[in-house]
Amino acid sequence: MIDRLNWYTETVHMLLRMASPIRRDGSSVHYLRKRVPADLTDRAVGLLLRVPVGDQTATVKVGGNGMVKVSLRTHDPREAKARQAKVLAYLDDVWQSLRDGPRRLSHKQVVALAGDFRRRAIARFDEEPGPATVWARLLEVSAGWDEAVQLREAGPFVEEHLARHALNVDEGTKAALTREMFKVGAEIAEVLKGRAEGNYTPDLGASRFPVLQLDAPKDAASVSLRELFKGWKREAEAAGKAPKTFDEYGSAIERLVSFLKYDDAMRVTPKDIVAYKDMRLATINPRTGKPLSDKTVRDGDLAALKAVFKWAVGNHHIPSNPAVGITVMRRTAERTRPKGYTDDEAIAILTAALAYKGASDELAKTAAAKRWVPWLLALAGPRVGEMVQLRRQDVRRCGSHWTVTITPEAGPVKNKRRRDVPLHPQLVELGFIDFVEASAEGYLFLTAKDRSEVRGRLNAVKNRLSEFARSIVRDERIRPNHAWRHRFVTLSREHDLSQELRRMILAQGGKGVDEEVYGEPAGLYREICKLPRYTIPSGGQVLDAAEQGALQPQNGPPGL
Hints:
Layout: H1 2-16, E1 31-35, H2 41-44, E2 48-53, E3 56-61, E4 67-71, H3 77-100, H4 107-125, H5 132-143, H6 147-164, H7 171-196, H8 225-238, H9 243-260, H10 270-281, E5 284-285, E6 290-291, H11 294-314, H12 343-354, H13 364-380, H14 384-388, E7 395-398, E8 401-406, E9 419-422, H15 425-429, H16 432-438, H17 454-472, H18 483-494, H19 499-506, H20 524-528, H21 545-550
């Protein structure tokens, strides 16, 4: 691989450099000496310039004394004077570029710059393209490289091309130009391979590139981050994205604007995103008193920014995605206990749920949720929100047993697909069906007319359930509601439930799981019945407050 990489690098440098050194012919060759303006000396020293000299370019490094020395490569005084004017104009552009600071080019300008690179490279070898095998080999070697290798190999040519045009651009523009120039590299090799084989038909591919215009105002028009989010949201809503996603992404955009102290996507650079990421990783979660997790920042903040910026690039609002490639290293967390409830923990919560009467100032439906939802989670394995938004009409008899229907018609469902889950016989024996039949039409555990009113109230009830479970099982290492789902999977394995049918019950993807399920797949009730019944202390009778407290050990083992 190293030999191939070296061969590629050497070949590209040979083929794509636009100028070759010209032998200096003694002191009669004219030179230009120019001092860097005093206000730019610190920034300019060491800078590599691609200075136009006649029809070629020369690579010149700004000296440590702040002087630029350029060979004009001619003995003719009149030609030297003309070349000197061109060099001075170029240097003026360089100085102005340094004063203006990094510039954000538009998407059209980036593509035009790549097209200019393509045109120059093809023109350089149009008369003498050399062997076709060289260009074929170039195409072959570079075809399978991933983006990271592509960007690394194209980088030096990008710097050279920017220097040729006296451009000082920001990191986002540079990254976008690097990708475009690597793409045109394949086109260059394809065209010159054809030339080497004798094919001199017109290069029709060149027509896709716009005319290069860099004299437009250097301060690109502002593009509001908030407006980009609104545009992304309109399409995401049409595509059926979950409302929860809009809240999370909108919050991430607002946090970024607050952090940057401006609302202009054109000014955002990859370094800004890294700084924002570092700020978020250092933010203390008020609930835990610890810094935000890597998952929160990676799958929350960065995922939101990447998605919105990607949409903006795809719709030509900005030239590049400043968040691309930026991530958070996954931390290997210690796991000192199972993610699901232990037997003792599960029985403690279910016993308290079965005995729960409700507080005097508590909504009846919230009390009913604390009474029944833990049991539904324990014996059916759904996500907590899927049970909290259950409606009376979603519970029905199916032959000899009962099922609950989980459907997007009731509220948010992660995969947006309806499914039927059979109820474990113990739920029927405990009186869940009696509770349903005695309930009014509509939602069983929250007050809402329809789906449009569910969301906020759904979260409130989920929080009350989490607090209820946490008051019994105090172990902070588990997620109170989701721990039931982990336990369900563990029990399914212990009692030999079919993996395919278990995934259908839980609405989990996986090999062998049907993509489209109409009604209840055969065998689900058989699999649910494999799960053992829970044995409840005191026979499951309703307990008074003192007896409920007795079920909540104060000094027991971790987790209780």
